[in-house]
Design brief:
The chain has about 170 residues and is an alpha+beta fold. It contains two helices and five strands.
């Protein structure tokens, strides 16, 4: 079990118990699903003069589990590489963790869970994606760090305030 107290969270969040910083306990983390498709190998593994087009999608979801302070957070990373209308590879990692959140007021829980928790999961999912592409015969795909706060804000604008946390 990993205990991460504070992190990038603001310890002076309104409504938190005085003198107590928000806490995040990682109760477990695991692969929910992982797939790597290499549909045109071995032809697609031949060197080319042109770099492939790589499309990357990121999704974060969260569900309450157990008591009100425990959440399963699911981070999905998908990457598809194409060259001249030919798929080189398609990889998907669905990586999750169960987190216990403490000292965070209810009105701040939604952004806290969907920003801080995936931030903790990301390095592990990124490493798995990199190893999958390397094991598939390609150079390791290293995704740049993700600004989960900006991703959260964009999703909230797209959903016009809809709830992502599920009971």
């Amino acid at each position: 079990m990993t205990d991460t107290s504070g992190g990038d969270a603001n310890p002076d969040i309104e409504g938190a118990a005085p003198g107590q910083a928000p806490t995040v306990n990682v109760l477990g983390q695991y692969v929910k699903d992982m797939s790597f498709e290499n549909p045109n190998a071995p032809q697609s593994l031949a060197p080319t003069e042109e770099a492939p087009t790589i499309n990357i999608n990121v999704n974060v979801d969260a569900n309450k589990v157990g008591d009100d302070e425990e959440f399963e957070v699911v981070l999905t990373l998908e990457a598809r590489a194409e060259n001249d209308d030919q798929t080189l590879f398609n990889v998907e990692i669905v990586y999750a963790g169960v987190f216990r959140i403490g000292n965070v007021p209810e009105e701040h829980m939604h952004p806290f869970v969907l920003i801080e928790c995936p931030r903790l999961l990301f390095p592990f999912a990124r490493q798995m994606l990199s190893e999958a592409t390397r094991n598939g015969g390609y150079p390791p795909l290293m995704i740049d760090p993700i600004d989960f706060a900006a991703l959260y804000q964009q999703n909230m604008m797209d959903q016009a305030g809809g709830s992502v946390l599920k009971n």
